[in-house]
Amino acid sequence: MKRKELIVTAINSGTVIDHIPADKVFQVIRILDLELSQDEIYFGTNLVSQKYGRKGIIKISQKYFKPQESDKIALVAPTATLIEIKDFEVVRKNNVNIPDKIERIAKCFNPNCITNKENVPTKFTVLQTDGQIKLSCHYCEKTTSQNNMVFF
Amino acid sequence: MKDRSLVSINDYSREEIIKILDIAAEFEQNTHQNLLKGRVIASLFFEPSTRTRLSFESAIQKMGGNVVGFSSSGTTSVQKGESIKDTILTVSNYSDLIVMRHSVEGSARYASEVSPVPIINAGDGSNQHPTQCLLDLYSIRKTQGTLENLEVTFVGDLKYGRTVHSLVIALCHFNTKFHLVSPLELKLPSAVKRHIKEANLTYEQYTDFSEVIPKSDIIYMTRIQRERFPDPLEYEKVKNAYILDNKMLDNAKENCRILHPLPRVNEINVDVDSNPKAYYFEQALNGVYVRQALIASILGLK
User: Running along chain B, 302 residues long, what does each successive block of 10 average in pLDDT?
Assistant: First the structure.
């Protein structure tokens, strides 16, 4: 008999971030500051996915993401799906969208950029070339690649 | 262009670039025009400069304007920790337009966002130097009679040279064929090459200088700085590979001209100076006309 069970425990209410690239789960946890959360969190990685081969998943109780947080997730895990749950029912399901422009959520990689020297909020245009996401700084015009992205 | 800051060459369309060059040509014919009578231009050089600052100040004075400002931040409130924003807001009370050079990248863009008067970027760190770019374009058009369909060779430090980056991006408007000559460590960054690709133009990269000379309409030389190399041995290996001397120009095209943003150290041998193909000192003079054109058009006087 085939055994059907959830590998990662269901949550009553909150958000499931599904289809995270397997190697990005810990980065997603970090950028969302989930380390500091007091809510129940379950996560798994290297799980079998029909769509992507291997994937990661994070389930966070009582948490619903704001657009800015969803933008952050998109930059690190562009394939992610956000599933909002209330009383064990799915109430909303969205793929994250990579934004065209972002403000205040990431740092510029260039140490000599004005945003790293004075109190100036960062602004970037998001570039997508050859499957890579890069941030082009509105001020210093340098590009920050995915490996060098640091979020506030 | 009236009341608009010039921070990056990307701020100007092809048509706007041509418009400025046309106005600059008028100033070359008639350089003393009393357009700025009673106007005050601030010249804020937080970082030292010879050509850029003096040619701006010369441009302003030839138009009858007054200059206030400083040529190093040592004698200003910047030493007391004043922010760029506060300095710009203060100076904008005393001037109709601000020309600024600062070592921090993005400082000019930020200044243009907080300043009530227009800003002209005279260099922000390794980022942009749009007035140099416009005078380079002016020099190319003047010597070649056109900006279209030229073969332009860039030599030396293509990685850190901001004048190279701005000029490559601007030339993408004019169907240029790019030849890029540099040591492997100092190749043109991919962020700049992206503009060439987006314009559906082609570039070729070389580590050897000589083979490309006969193809070139313009040879744009730059200085290779020792401090760009983490390993001094690497610098020693390449330092003499990108030096232009008079003999190398024997098989250059008749219309070929040598440009250099200056200062030069040894990358153009002094024996080239008397060759009619050498154009770098005239290039520096063109900076005055281009800066006159920019100031006049931003203040709505042309």
Answer: 93 96 97 95 92 95 96 80 94 97 96 98 93 98 98 94 93 98 92 93 94 97 84 84 93 97 93 97 96 97 92
A115 Rama class: left (phi>0) / alpha (psi -120 to 50) / beta: alpha
- Could you tell me if B216 and B238 lie in one domain? yes
Total number of domains constituting chain B: 2
Instruction: Find which of A117, A128, A135, A137 to mutate to test the B interface (most B CBs within 10 Å of its CB).
Output: A117
Model pTM score = 0.89
Residues with Cβ within 8 Å of A27's Cβ and at least 6 positions away in sequence, in order, are A76, A77
A141·B85 Cβ contact <8 A: no
What was the ipTM of the complex prediction? 0.89
Asked if residue B4 is part of any domain, the answer here is: no
Residue in the structure block whose two tokens are 């005078």: B135
Is B62 a member of any domain? yes
| B72 belongs to a structural domain | yes
Q: Which two tokens stand for residue A74?
A: 């998109």
- Asked whether the beta carbons of residue B106 and residue A140 sit closer than 8 angstroms, the reply is yes
Whether residue B107 is contained in a domain is answered as yes
Asked whether B169 and B10 are in contact (CB, 8 A), the reply is yes
B27-41 tens-digit pLDDT? 999 999 999 999 999
- Round to the nearest angstrom and report the end-to-end CA distance of chain B: 10
My answer on whether B171 and B242 are in the same domain is yes
Parallel/antiparallel/unpaired status of strands A101-103 and A123-129: antiparallel
- Which residues of chain B approach chain A closer than 8 Å at the C-beta? 8, 10, 83-85, 103-107, 109-110, 124-128, 191, 194
**Domain range for residue B278?**
130-284
Q: How confident is the model over B98-117, as pLDDT tens digits?
A: 999 999 999 999 999 999 99
If asked whether residues B188 and B71 sit together in one domain, one would say no
